[in-house]
Write a structure and sequence with these properties.
Elements lengths: L2 E6 L7 H9 L4 E5 L14 E6 L11 H16 L3 E4 L1 H9 L4 E13 L1 E2 L3 H7 L7 E10 L6 E5 L7 E4 L2 E4 L7 H10 L14 H5 L2 H23 L6 H10 L1
Parallel strand pairs: 1-2, 1-3, 3-4, 4-10
Antiparallel strand pairs: 5-7, 6-8, 8-9, 9-10
Helix pairs in contact: 2-3
Length: 250
């Protein structure tokens, strides 16, 4: 069975909701720990089903050698039509690889923010079954442009370019991959990063308010996205047992 490669950039920025689901679905995966100096593959072999890029506090514009290596790997994936998933920094890497740009925002967007669905056919296909009141957890100071030929899925008030899909590649600016425990840790580690304003950056108290309820609500969107993305890899014909698990669990 094909496995997933998950790219971790910093030890405290993980994807517990995603990895928990992969274990539940018995999907094989390997974490490439960039923070520990793990090598980035220079090609994608036949036993690899997809690539997933997690977040990080660095910028895709920083002169770090592994950034260009990951960007090149995403371009190889595009050529081979291998599914790619990215969250926050990961989505910015996909945008950059596909010709988009990543720039600093006037104000950071940190906290729970209501999303608005984009008015296009593909966005409606992805989102039509979801509640209209979903808030996503954002924590970023840079934003990507929607790459050419990509479809814009949803937006927030303070950062319109929140999510896009192109062929079998999906990028989300929000951290839809985390859980409440991880967010609590981030609020301790990065509390200095939070300077509340009247909108885009919320107080720690507000972010913590009803945290599990908000996570559960966000994960309705997360699971819908993961169901589509994983079904591109583990199809009914190529991996029927995993496919059925994906359909029933997600």
């Amino acid at each position: 069975m094909k496995k997933l490669l998950l790219f971790r950039h910093e030890s405290w920025i993980k994807a517990p909701h995603l990895t928990g689901l992969l274990k539940q679905l018995t999907i094989p995966h390997k974490i490439i720990k960039i923070d520990e100096g793990n090598a980035i593959p220079n090609d994608i072999h036949e036993n690899i089903g997809g690539l997933v890029f997690w977040g990080g506090t660095m910028s895709v514009n920083d002169p770090l050698p592994w950034i260009e290596e990951e960007v090149n790997l995403i371009r190889i994936a595009k050529q081979k039509n291998i599914p790619v998933l990215g969250h926050c920094l990961g989505a910015q890497l996909i945008s950059k690889a596909l010709g988009g740009t990543v720039t600093r925002m006037e104000q950071k967007e940190i906290g729970w923010h209501q999303i608005s669905f984009c008015d296009n056919e593909l966005a409606q296909d992805w989102l039509h079954c979801l509640p209209k009141n979903i808030q996503v957890l954002t924590w970023h100071g840079e934003q990507f442009t929607i790459p050419a030929q990509s479809t814009h899925l949803y937006k927030t008030t303070y950062c319109p370019n929140q999510a896009f899909v192109i062929n079998t590649m999906l990028g989300t600016q929000a951290h839809i991959e985390i859980d409440a425990t991880m967010l609590e840790k981030w609020l301790d580690i990065y509390r200095h990063d939070i300077q509340p304003n009247n909108g885009s950056m919320q107080t720690i108290k507000k972010i913590k308010q009803d945290i599990q309820q908000k996570m559960d609500n966000m994960h309705i969107l997360t699971n819908a996205f993961y169901k589509k993305w994983l079904s591109w890899i583990y199809t009914q014909s190529s991996a029927p047992n995993i496919y059925q698990k994906i359909q029933s669990i997600l």
